[in-house]
Design brief:
heterodimer, A: 252 residues, mainly alpha, 11 helices, 85% helix, 0% strand, globular, B: 314 residues, alpha/beta, Rossmann fold, Alpha-Beta Plaits, six-stranded mixed β-sheet, four-stranded antiparallel β-sheet
């Protein structure tokens, strides 16, 4: 399977470069700090929550706050991982190797995507491990935690696909990184703006915002519409990346 | 394709970059056992032609068939018969030579069981023994170039296309690479582009000269040595003057050189060095020296790329 060969090479290259390690270390450190802050808050309010009866448990309190903050961090980290996927090949002069091999552009794009998922999902898994450790001392709602993790995983996959497409447009990885960050931030900010405008604007502007579709997952709900949003988002950008590589051959 | 020895058959191949026509309706044939040297000044369209043959860019018009398989209709099957070394070797600096070749083998669909063998063969063919565990980034330019060639021949393709394979190598490495190209030419078909003329003379069995996107000259190498003699250099004891020389049969032009020497441009159909010698002796001008001048590849190249109509020797 050539897709897997390309994916394996990409994953190995990512883990060989310091970028993946620095990004994973930085994201994990920041997310751990946020986790401890929220845990501390929880411990302070816990006696009151217990007295009031029916207040949120530790999972319901921590998971939405932790993952909500973590996805914003992912939004900044993902572009750094995806920026070199195709821009790097182009700058390295290795794109002709892939294009002249008996491999379709779809296989190239899928291989790259699967490769970078290996790092993106590791990033999400490291976050999920933090609330999971609480299972040693408290009761954790495993289903809610898994759903939040799934939501975050879908989000990084979608962000990764967008980053892959933007990396196909340029030979400068830095340009791809900034463009990806810009795109994801604009979607996020438009959603926030829509919420402040109210009325018809709210659903219109909030729809493309990732946070809208992440919210049900973090509340412990499986919303198939939200899942479909991320899957479609990823498919569209992967298709655009394939088209871009095909057009490059045809470009006149 | 009816002819099983034809590896590449190209017709009407054209490529435009915006308003610029880089490759203009060229026809090309490569047979098994042939090493075709693609010559031309920079910007003649050599690299674009090679990129189209390898499928990294699509032609604007024209057909390409590789080993009888149409490259545009069945790119996957056609590309299996191709090995390509672009101008810049497509190497991943963060991999070792062995890892890199294993990746390329997987990319070209070499079966898992056959990979170790294929890598061993390519390594020994390209003189890469002892570098397998080194990072590509740490190799010298010459070894990087060899790794690039190893990549192109790894899956034992029917056609090997090399874009300036000896750039940046020292003379000893160039000799080794040329020997390798000659060896490849025995079992495979090879197309190589270069602007080093002696390289073509040393390695190629056929030469095609490109200029402004067209093939302006194409001939088997052995024919170039036997091209009809159209220039004769003479030194005479007594100088009869240009007008008298012009009276000899078959002379088309005369260039007076220093020291009583003349370069006679002759029509090979109407005269020969022997007849000129006989004519001079008969006139009693004291023939001191006579040497026929063959057109060298360099002269052919200069004439063909100067925009003049070139002779088609093939």
């Amino acid at each position: 399977m050539t897709v897997l060969a390309i994916a394996r090479r990409e994953l190995a290259a990512l883990y060989r470069s310091p970028v993946a390690w620095v990004v994973l270390a930085a994201v994990t450190a920041i997310v751990a700090f946020i986790f401890l802050l929220h845990l501390n808050t929880y411990l302070q309010v816990q006696p009151r929550l217990e007295r009031s009866q029916g207040g949120p448990g530790v999972t319901a309190f921590l998971v939405p706050r932790l993952f909500g903050a973590a996805t914003t961090i992912y939004l900044m980290a993902a572009p750094l991982l995806t920026m070199g996927l195709l821009a790097g090949e182009r700058r390295n002069g290795t794109l002709p190797l892939l294009l002249s091999a008996p491999v379709s552009t779809l296989e190239i794009v899928l291989g790259k995507f699967i490769g970078v998922l290996g790092v993106l999902l590791a990033m999400v898994a490291l976050t999920a491990l933090m609330p999971a450790t609480l299972a040693l001392v408290a009761h954790i709602d495993a289903g809610a935690l898994l759903l939040a993790t799934l939501g975050a995983a879908l989000f990084v996959a979608a962000a990764g696909a967008a980053g892959l497409y933007l990396s196909a447009l340029t030979r400068q990885p830095a340009v791809a990184a900034v463009a990806t960050l810009g795109l994801l931030l604009i979607l996020l900010l438009l959603g926030e703006w829509g919420r402040t405008l109210g009325g018809d604007w709210t659903p219109l502007l909030a729809y493309p915002a990732p946070s809208t579709h992440l919210a049900p997952f973090f509340k412990g709900l499986f919303d198939s519409g939200a899942a479909a949003f991320f899957v479609l988002f990823a498919v569209v950008f992967l298709a655009l990346a394939v088209r871009r590589l095909d057009n490059e051959r045809l470009q006149r | 394709m009816a002819d099983p020895t034809t590896l590449i058959e190209v017709s009407g191949l054209t490529r435009d970059y915006g308003p610029l026509r880089a490759v203009d309706a060229i026809d090309l044939r490569l047979a098994r056992g042939e090493v075709l040297g693609l010559l031309g000044p920079n910007g003649a369209g050599k690299t674009s032609t090679m990129q189209m043959l390898c499928g990294t860019i699509a032609p604007t018009a024209g057909r390409i068939s590789i080993n009888g398989i149409d490259l545009l209709d069945e790119p996957r099957r056609a590309k299996q018969a191709l090995g390509y070394l672009p101008e810049d070797p497509p190497l991943y600096p963060d991999m070792t030579v062995a890892e890199y070749l294993a990746f390329v083998a997987a990319l070209h669909g070499v079966p898992r069981r056959a990979r170790a063998d294929a890598i061993r063969r390519a390594v020994s063919r390209c003189g890469l023994e002892g570098t397998e565990t080194r990072l590509v980034a740490n190799l010298s330019k010459g070894y990087q170039q060899r790794t690039g060639i190893a990549q192109a021949v790894l899956h034992d393709p029917a056609v090997v296309i090399l874009d300036e394979p000896t750039v940046g190598l020292d003379p000893i490495q160039i000799r080794e690479i040329r020997a390798l190209i000659a060896e490849l030419g025995r079992e495979h078909g090879v197309i190589l582009s270069t602007h080093i003329l002696p390289e073509v003379q040393a390695t190629c069995s056929r030469v095609a000269i490109m200029h402004l996107g067209r093939i302006v000259f194409s001939a088997p190498m052995d024919r170039i040595g036997e091209a009809p003699i159209d220039r004769v250099l003479v030194r005479l004891g007594t100088d009869p003057g240009e007008a008298a020389l012009r009276a000899l049969p078959g002379i088309t032009d005369i260039q007076g050189l220093a020291g009583g020497r003349y370069r006679l441009h002759v029509d090979p159909e109407r005269t020969s060095p022997e007849r000129i010698a006989a004519g001079i002796v008969e006139a009693g001008w004291g023939l001191a020296e006579l040497s026929p001048e063959r057109r060298t590849l360099e002269q052919i190249f200069v004439e063909a790329t100067a925009g003049e109509p070139a002779a088609e020797a093939a």
